[in-house]
Amino acid sequence: MAKESWEICTGQLILQPISFKPGRLLGTFKALKQVLGDARCPTHYLATPPALFAMVIKGLGATGLADQARVIVEKPFGRDPASAREFNRIAL
Q: What's the pTM value of the predicted model, to 2 decimals?
């Protein structure tokens, strides 16, 4: 990738740490929404433990951050086929 293209791409990345402490998760999503402003079609890359994927996706949805967005999750996608299907149901 050309240096100029790389700089454009990385200039659009936002690292948003998430606090899973009681009462703080919603604030994290609200802060992310403020940072994204009127961004269209954002991509959310979840580098979180699989047990938290559903909670994060529900939070993105509850704050409108999942509208017209893509969500990418790191492997593993569930603990077994049943949990992977359940997560897929939540994500869709």
A: 0.75
